[in-house]
Amino acid sequence: MNGKLGLTLFIALLLTFSLGCGSESLSKNEYTIATGSKSGVYYPIGETLAGILKIDYPNVQLKALETAGSVENLQMLKEGKVDMALVQNDIAFYAAEGEAMFADQKITNITGIATLFPEVVQFIVRKETGIGSLTQMEGRKIAVGSKNSGTYYNAQQILTLAGVWEKIDQQFIGGTDAMKELQEGKIDGFIFTSGLPNPSIIELAKKVEITLVPVEHDLVQKLVNSYSFYFPSTIAPNQYPGQIAEVSAVEINAILVSGPSLSDDDQYLLTRHLFGKPNELGQSHPRLSKMTRNSLRRQMPIQTGKGAYKAHSEAP
Ligand code: GLU
Predict the structure, then answer these.
(1) Res. 11 pLDDT band, cuts 50 70 90
(2) Residue 279's pLDDT band (cuts 50, 70, 90)
(3) Which of 100, 140, 158, 235 lies in disulfide reach of 94, CB 3.0 to 4.6 Å?
């Protein structure tokens, strides 16, 4: 081999190697992730992700922001106010298609990173109200979620099909305020689409007796037939203090998405580091310990980002 050819080959190899590996350093020192209310599961997961990132990148901060939930998170992403967000897959679908609450406001600049865990639509009432079914919520004061949450839209869809949406006294407050008001006896119940069990509801149930109201099987069937993102679900016994029986319910999936402020290279590195440590992630919530390489790609309603796709393909 002559010298010139040797050098050309050497440069070609070097280029292939460096392009193939990508840079190991993130382009920014600070990233933001939109989560939900502090009494939810999104917020502590945001903090866990921040902790995991610190293991490999001690100088990089991931800030978890408290928000109203999925709808607000998607708007913040679109406007470049946050780099990533935890959102419900049903709501992300509506955003990408420009449907329902996103009619005429289609969001085209978001991509999926990973599917995390199922979230169950939980209907909680004070036990002393005697409410045992969704129809018995008629005339009662029920917190249906902040208007920019995913919970609010699940409450609206489910209670509309149950025939009581217009008949309840709707309170537009999120998890933290709803739990406080339920404890103080100011409201009869609340709805929260959240991971199971929700630690704040466990604490609440230690202070005031609660009932988990079932979504009856017929209604589950109707919901599954009418909306593509609901799946039949159950709340197993003893998820919450005093809850001895299994409760019929529906679930959707929580996903991690990113917006225009996150480059493909950063998305690749973040996906690799955040999901390459299943033990740390699993400890933050029991539901996360069930994640697998395949589950990370399941039920993603929007296009998976290039960086995330690359990271998932390389995972062992
Ligand atoms: N799924 C909820 C929402 O977007 C937030 C749930 C949580 O923080 O646990 O409205």
Answers:
(1) very low
(2) low
(3) 100
Distance 18 CA to ligand 1 centre (A): 40
Q: What pLDDT was estimated at residue 10?
A: 43
Query: What is the number of the ligand 1 atom nearest to the C-alpha of 194?
Result: 9
* Residue whose C-alpha is closest to residue 270's, from 55, 5, 41: 55
Residues 6+ apart with CB under 8 A from 83: 31, 32, 33, 258, 259, 261, 262, 266
Reported pTM? 0.90
Q: Which residues contact ligand 1 via a Cβ below 6 A?
A: 36, 40-42, 69-70, 88, 119, 149-151, 193-195
| 140-151 tens-digit pLDDT | 999 999 999 999
The segment(s) of the chain belonging to CATH 3.40.190.10 are: 26-117+253-314, 119-252
By most ligand atoms within 8 Å of CB, the mutation choice from 65, 73, 86, 147 for ligand 1 is 86
Q: Which of 21-35, 116-130, 208-222, 224-238 has the lowest mean pLDDT?
A: 21-35
- The atom number, within ligand 1, closest to the CA of 71 reads 4
CATH number for the domain formed by residue range(s) 119-252: 3.40.190.10
In this structure, CATH architecture of domain 26-117+253-314: 3-Layer(aba) Sandwich (3.40)
Measuring CA to CA, which residue among 28, 35, 29 is closest to residue 87? Answer: 35
For residue 222, give both structure tokens. 């109707």
Beta bridge partners of 255: 87, 115
In sequence order, the β-bridge partners of residue 126 are 210
